[in-house]
Amino acid sequence: xxxxxxxxxxxxxxxxxxxxxxxxxxxxxxxxxxxxxxxxxxxxxxxxxxxxxxxxxxxxxxxxxxxxxxxxxxxxxxxxxxxxxxxxxxxxxxxxxxxxxxxxxxxxxxxxxxxxxxxxxxxxxxxxxxxxxxxxxxxxxxxxxxxxxxxxxxxxxxxxxxxxxxxxxxxxxxxxxxxxxxxxxxxxxxxxxxxxxxxxxxxxxxxxxxxxxxxxxxxxxxxxxxxxxxxxxxxxxxxxxxxxxxxxxxxxxxxxxxxxxxxxxxxxxxxxxxxxxxxxxxxxxxxxxxxxxxxxxxxxxxxxxxxxxxxxxxxxxxxxxxxxxxxxxxxxxxxxxxxxxxxxxxxxxxxxxxxxxxxxxxxxxx
Length: 366
Ligand SMILES: [Cu+2]
Known about the structure:
By secondary structure, the chain is mainly beta.
C-alpha cells in the first residue's frame, strides 16, 4: 500500500512536469547571430546532464562531450527492506549449495564511468550519435567462515576496469514548434565491454582463488542491445521541461545468459534565471529484469553470482546545474552537474542499494 502510494505520487509528478505549461507563441533563442550581435545560448537548451540523447542538432552541426559518472552503493536490501551481512549468511539460500546459505556478502561498491560522446546532424531531422566509455568498478566483501554461522573469516575487494559497451544511434525529429519538441532515438549497444574479468576472492575455507567475477563486476552486457527512446521537451520563457522513455532490450544471449531488459522513464523541470545558468530537478523510474540464464563459470556462495539477484524497481530524485559560456573562448562550452539520491528501491535481493549518483559533464557544439 505504502509502495503503491509512492508510485502514484511519482507518476503524478511526472505528469505534472509534462503538463505544467502549454503555450504557442514563443521564440526559442538559437545559437546564431542576429543584427551583428551574439544571441544568448540557453543553458536549459540541454536537459540535465544525466539524461542521454535528449536533444538534436541543426544540419551539419557537431558536438563533442565528456561525462563522468560516479555511483556509490553501500549495504543490502531484499525488496524494500535493509538486511545485514549476518542476516544474509544465515537466511538466504545458496543456489550453488553446498554450503546451504550464502557465505560472502558485498558491502560496498563504487562505479566510475568516463563517457566520450560525439553527435553530428546529417539533416535537421536526423542527428547521429556515438558514445564510448571507460569503466572502473570496485566491490568490497565480507567472507564468513565455513559453511554456517556468523564468524567472519575476513574481507576482500575485487576490481575491474576497461572499456565498456559502445553505443551508436540515430535520432529522428518527429515534431517541433516554438514550445514543444519530440524526437525518437533508435540506438544499438555494441558488446565491446569485457565479460571475462577475473580477480582474487577469499573463500569461506580461507583460500585465495582467482575466479571469473560475477555479472555486476563485468564491463559489458555481452549482447547487442536495442535502445529505443522517445523524448519530449518544452520551453517557455525561463522554464523548460521534458520527459523521456528509454528501453534496453538484449538480443539473444552470450555465454549462456543475457542481462535483464530495462525500462526507464524520466521527467525534468528546469529554471533558467539567466541564459548562462539553469537549475533543474528530475525524477527517474527504472525497472530492470533479472538476468536470464547463467554463466557456468560463475558459481560462488555470494548473491552477485545468482542471476535472480539482479534487477528491481528504483526511483531516483536528481538536482542539476547547467552552465554555458556566452562570450569569447568560452562561448558554446557547456558544463553541467547532476546529483541523485534514491527515493525508492525495491530490489530482487539481497542486492546492494544505491546511495547516490553524481554526473558531471562538458559539451561543446560547433
Ligand atoms: Cu549534442
